[in-house]
Design goal:
Chain lengths: 617, 337
């Protein structure tokens, strides 16, 4: 049937769903994502929602958006969308800026009445003219069609209106040639306990799909190409779930129980939610009374011999600082996850930034070094959570894992790894036999890594006392000796530095022969990678180095950086990683691309700025 | 578990004790060693976790697993420890500043959650380690370095916080009453849940004699009452005084006077689920009514750590995933050939 319509074949396409925060745009977007991943597309999503749970209906502040890119070589959710779905005038007004020139807008024309326009602060009754929209606007009577489809359902009006999002989803499924059966499976899982709602939604999604089919003469239809992915079993995963699962993998590989002490905070709470569910794998996730208790309970669990984790966002990391300092001093393994959001203070709770880097590196009293790692993509959260746990356990140190709202909430298709793809983790736990043979000293160190030896409480003969007071290098008793303090400070510092021997080298991507090296870290990988591909395709040769290990840096990092004429660091802050690198690169200027808007980079803006730099000299 | 016999010395570390000579902490430490020997739980299955302050130095003097942590956070750290390793017997050592000021939030939540830890709250009504500031248990008008004209605020009464947080165990002792201290420590350890023992402790340097109006030898028998479950609430040097119910409150009477006989005297029931009378007893301040020592409340309720273990076992019995991969594969997936 699609052959009869005007079918465009595309590498990738970007769709943005927008509506009231109660309109179910996140659900519609998520199902579209899962269905697309199921047909073999790469996917990348960007939920863009307000901090308020339910702002006044129809108001500009209450608009919730969900952008997804599907197709081949998808690294980002896209700078702008090909198709914008706007469920009301406020959604249109807030989101039209994300539409590509020539993109298609689908609106629920039933919700463009005069009162709706006033709520969205339109001055005229011609919203499309007022916004100067020149592209194709498809006016769909979503509300009335949904009501008609459910006329005999017996559902009350409120429940009927809640199905509007699924009508829009049906229409989009038709538009992009997505199998409706797959969408139905997702709906069935979502509404497993509400069969009447599932029935209603399955009628509505078909109605939306059929509506699209019946009006196809006026809309372009798309067919999206797929890459050839690695064979295996796949699932759709967002960064926060991937983080939770990476920790579980680490606990299995270390042979230790997993403990999470946490406190709800946007945008990190989904890690707590997921691990709370995973009692089915023996995980103990404890919601404590505050952020401080979150980290402190984890410190207690670490001393008790578990793989111990606390999860938070920037304001929570600030509260945890003193506890993290204790873990530095007591040399206890601890994973601290910071899903970064806009700051300072409460800042932009639902928006993304990379502004906690200095807090992670330096935000404690005293000489207090620890390891800092960062995840590059939603699926990389799995790997880096595993790595954070591995480093913590094998090097007896707290490790801060930096992710962010963009990759934490964003999702991608993910090949479920075999257990054999991850190494065994060796916690530094002394056995009862070792203790019986050699005695036990809490600061006995591995001569290679300087990691100390732990005795898990319950082990006979391993009794010892830890604490925040400085300890004697040899005996572990309290010590005020000046020389000993300096020795301990240097030892703790050297222990962190030696982690560099135990992490992978930084890779150079893009055109390694170029003069220009574009550097990033953490969750900006997708945008920088897409920019590098575009620059090289456009004739501006650029190499790329993306850092996931921040402290210590990979052993080859400074050599790589020094080998390029021009080093440009792109990051979502005023230049923290650039400053960090600059402090290690005397005599070499580190150039910067910065954005602090609570939004991810656009690929286009990175491309433009790199071109400016390369044209200057 | 272990047939070995333990003595107080089994729980003593080799570290020199550094509290001031005459400090009440010495007596409490020695009593704790004795209580642990009485309990017979091996040192390697015992953990002592403290915050910051004079009393919080105590773990260094124990031959158990120990952790001297940060100010106010001992309850949170002990909670995580106990959930992670429920086989261990866990003691938390805090002072009135550590436990009720900076750590007040963790204290009430540990009590509310009923985590199975034994909290020894050393109450000397002063900050000693910082050299003499008023604490949250100092009386209104108390003069200290940080309140040179007297405080303008009312204190916490620790028992009231425990009852407000719906605590399942509250006991009280005095540093110099070694036998009572040992009795309440042993009872706390046997209690399954959060067990708070307030121990009135004398700071010989910055607040010497603060408890004297109650604890002086001459007055102690008349100003304190030792409560024991199942026994008549009697006090006085000759045990001829008793507590009787008086409307909604309590009254101290002398047996044989005003028509009161021994039959009128209340019998202590520490195991009564209602905390109404327990609270009345715990709030007696030694002025009109004698200050209560001994185990005031000790009732059964689900302990948090046990409940977590049980829930894990129940969920695992239902779902029975052997690995992360198995759990993921049970969800929505697709295969690429």
């Amino acid at each position: 049937m699609l052959e009869k319509t005007n079918v465009k074949v595309l590498d990738k396409v970007v769709v943005r769903f927008s509506g009231d925060s109660g309109d179910g745009m996140q659900l519609a977007g998520n199902i579209f994502t899962n269905v697309s991943a199921g047909v073999g597309n790469q996917v990348s999503t960007f939920p863009d929602y307000p901090a308020e749970i339910r702002a006044p209906q129809g108001s500009l502040s209450g608009v919730s958006g969900f952008q997804v890119s599907v197709g081949m070589s998808v690294y980002t959710p896209g700078d702008a969308c090909d198709v914008l779905i706007a469920m009301n005038p406020a959604a249109l007004k807030q989101n039209v800026k994300f539409l590509k020139p020539g993109g298609v807008i689908i609106v629920d024309i039933d919700s463009f009445k005069e009162a709706d326009l006033r709520k969205a602060k339109f001055e005229t009754n011609e919203p499309f003219a007022e916004l100067n929209i020149k592209g194709q606007v498809v006016e769909v009577p979503v509300t009335s069609m949904t009501k008609a489809a459910l006329a005999d359902s017996g559902l009350d009006n409120k429940s009927v209106l809640k199905c509007r999002n699924i009508f829009a989803l049906g229409l989009v499924c038709w538009l992009f040639d997505r199998p409706i059966e797959s969408a139905l499976r997702h709906l069935k899982a979502k509404f497993a306990r509400k069969p009447a709602i599932f029935e209603a939604n399955s009628k509505v999604i078909e109605a939306g799909y059929n509506y699209g089919h019946n009006i196809h003469a006026s809309v372009s239809t798309y067919r999206i190409e797929s890459d050839e992915p690695t064979p295996g079993v796949y699932t759709d995963i967002n960064g926060n779930t991937a983080t939770a699962w990476g920790l579980i993998m680490a606990s299995q590989k270390a042979g230790l129980p997993l403990f999470l002490g946490s406190y709800p905070i946007t945008p990190a709470t989904d890690i707590l939610h997921e691990l709370a569910k995973r009692k089915d794998l023996g995980v103990k996730a404890v919601q404590m009374e505050d952020e401080i208790a979150g980290v402190c309970s984890a410190i207690g669990a670490s001393f008790a011999g578990n793989l111990a984790v606390t999860s938070t966002s920037g304001p929570g990391l600030a509260l945890k600082s003193e506890g993290i300092g204790l873990a530095v001093m007591a040399e206890l393994p601890l994973v601290v996850i910071d899903v970064q959001r806009g700051g300072p203070s409460t800042g932009l709770p639902t928006k993304t930034e990379q502004t906690d880097l200095f807090q992670a590196l330096y935000g404690r009293n005293g000489e207090s070094p620890l390891a800092v790692v960062a995840a590059a993509t939603p699926t990389d959260c799995f790997t880096m959570a595993f790595e954070a746990a591995r480093i913590a356990l094998e090097h007896t140190t707290p490790v801060i894992l930096l992710t962010d709202a963009f990759i934490g909430n964003g999702s991608s298709a993910w090949r479920i790894p075999e257990d054999s793809e991850f190494p065994t983790i060796h916690p530094r736990h002394a056995s009862a036999e070792q203790i019986a043979a050699n005695g036990y000293h809490p600061y006995d160190r591995d001569p290679e890594t300087l990691a100390r030896l732990m005795a898990v409480p319950g082990t006979e003969g391993g009794q010892h006392r830890l604490g925040g007071l400085e300890k004697d290098y040899t005996t572990g008793a309290i010590s005020n000796d000046p020389a000993n303090h300096e020795k301990m400070v240097q030892t703790r510092r050297e222990k962190i530095a030696r982690i560099a021997r135990d992490i992978p080298a930084v890779e150079v991507l893009g055109n390694a022969e170029a003069d220009t090296l574009l550097v990033g870290w953490g969750g900006t990988y997708g945008h920088i990678r897409a920019a590098v591909d575009q620059l090289n395709a456009d004739g501006t040769p650029v190499a790329m180095a993306h850092f996931r290990y921040i402290n210590p840096l990979p052993a080859n990092a400074l050599d790589v950086l020094r080998s390029y004429k021009r080093v440009i660091v792109a990051e979502l802050n005023t230049g923290m990683f650039a400053d960090f690198l600059q402090s290690k690169l005397a005599g070499k200027e580190v150039l910067r691309i910065n954005k602090i808007q609570g939004q991810p980079f656009n690929v286009g803006e990175i491309v433009d700025k790199v071109k400016e730099f390369t044209q200057q000299s | 578990m272990d047939n070995q016999q333990y003595t107080p010395a089994s729980y003593k570390s080799d570290q020199a004790v550094r509290w001031c000579p005459g400090c009440g902490d010495h007596a409490i430490l020695n009593t704790l060693h004795k209580a642990m020997a009485t309990l017979g739980i091996p040192p390697h299955q015992t953990a002592v976790i403290s915050g910051i302050g004079c009393s919080s130095r105590l773990p260094y003097y124990m031959n158990t697993y120990g952790f001297h942590t940060i100010h106010g956070r001992a309850a949170a750290i002990a909670t995580g420890f106990k959930v992670a390793n429920p086989q261990m017997t866990v003691w938390q050592i805090s002072g009135d500043g550590d436990g009720l000021a900076i750590g007040g939030n963790h204290f009430i939540h540990a009590v509310r959650r009923n985590i199975d830890i034994n909290i020894l709250l050393f109450n000397n009504k002063i900050y000693g380690l910082t050299k003499g500031q008023y604490s949250p248990t100092s009386a209104r008008g108390f003069v200290s370095k940080s309140s040179p004209y007297g405080t303008t605020e009312d204190p916490f009464i620790p028992a009231e916080l425990v009852f407000g947080a719906r605590g399942t165990f509250f006991a009280r002792s005095i540093d110099v009453e070694l036998a009572t201290s040992q009795e309440v420590m042993v009872a706390a350890a046997k209690h399954h849940g959060a067990a708070v023992c307030e121990i009135l402790q004398n700071c010989v340097i910055f607040n010497n004699g603060i408890h004297n109006p109650i604890t002086d030898r001459e007055v102690r028998a008349d100003r304190t009452i030792h409560l024991r479950h199942g026994e008549k609430m009697l006090f006085g040097k000759d045990l001829n005084r008793g507590l009787v119910q008086d409307g909604f409150g309590l009254k101290a009477v002398t047996i044989g006077e005003d028509g009161y006989t021994i039959d009128d005297v209340l019998v202590h029931d520490a195991h009564c689920q209602s905390n109404f009378l327990h609270q009345q007893l715990a709030m007696m301040d030694g002025e009109t009514l004698p200050l209560a020592v001994g185990v005031i409340r000790d009732v059964d309720a689900p302990a948090y750590d046990t409940a977590v273990e049980q829930q894990v076992a129940e969920v695992r019995a239902r779902k029975n995933f052997q690995s992360l991969r198995e759990m993921i594969l049970a969800g929505e997936t697709w295969t690429v050939e």
